[in-house]
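WARN no homologs supplied; continuing
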Amino acid sequence: MRVLNVNNILDPRIGGGTVERTSQMSRHLVKAGVECSVLTSSCGMSEDRVACMPGVSVTALPCLNQRFQLPRLSLGKICRLVKKADVIHLMNHWTVLNALVYLAIRRYRKPYVVCPAGALPIFGRSRLIKQVYNATIGRRIVVDAKRFIAVTSSEIPHYLAYGGEREKVVVIPNGISAENFQVRDDHGFRQHFKLPDKPIILFVGRLNAIKGPDLLLDAFLSLGADFSNYQLVFAGPDGGMLAGLRREAARYPDGDRVHFIGYLAGAEKSSAYHAASLLVIPSRQEAMSIVAVEAGICGTPVLLTDQCGFDSIAEIGGGLVVPASAVGLVAGIRQLIAIDDELPSMGERLRQYVCRDFLWENIVGRYISLYEQMLSEAVKKNGRQ
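OK structure emitted
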């Protein structure tokens, strides 16, 4: 079986969780004996990203525009990749690359799945452009897919709103590779980033509105002297909010307990999760937070909003779910810090949950079974024609 994964970007600084999902899925498909290729753009590409996917053939089209990640119209190359593949997997939604691949898919009548990972609702900037995209081709890309991948059941209404059929939806969650999060060096991590020896409340992600870092900052600063023993650490690339967040923190006497340490990867990221007492995910909209799974594999409990589609974390006792507001986050932080001696056991419950249900070694088998089912259906359909 030959699978083509399509993601317009493989730079984790810009692409976030879908980049990690594409990389890990592709790597584990190859480990399971599947021939896997990735089609992307050259925007932010690096040798390290390719090296983390041994055995995966990566084709990167030249990027003509960084903001909109517009690839060069290499229709011949796209057609050759689509024609060779048995199944195509489209990541994200608002991309020109997906539209170009979709046109090739129609030409060669190939079965494909879509996985927007929470991106279907129109949110944030470029609303008019997104409306035009959906009207011209985006909605068709979704509806014509053989299957819709939802990373949580909360995504199902998104597909139905596009006119998708419920029976086409398959829920397959984000996964984690445990070997990537074995490094722990609490002292070295604090020393490297000049962090005080105080308990850490951690944020990991892009500093943009959809991720809600402003909500978390407001919540933390409003706690004031009651939680003077804690520090807040933002780990992630600037998505347009860094300067404003710095200014807001500087307005408060407790602003010196807020630290912005930038994008983390590899051993530094692993150490950050291990060093933290609590990870907070203040997202205004999210399908299923990969950082919640990453924290979980490190045994770090999670406070997240009810817009993350991951309420099961609270159900298994691995954290707490609150409304997506500064008020909700304040209440959640107060509740968890009041029982800070129980946080390690909450983290351990979350770790066990992640190991049971979210390891890529197990999840990749669900993709392979789905692809095999789709190919079987295609054979039966062609036999009837």
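The mean pLDDT is 92.
OK
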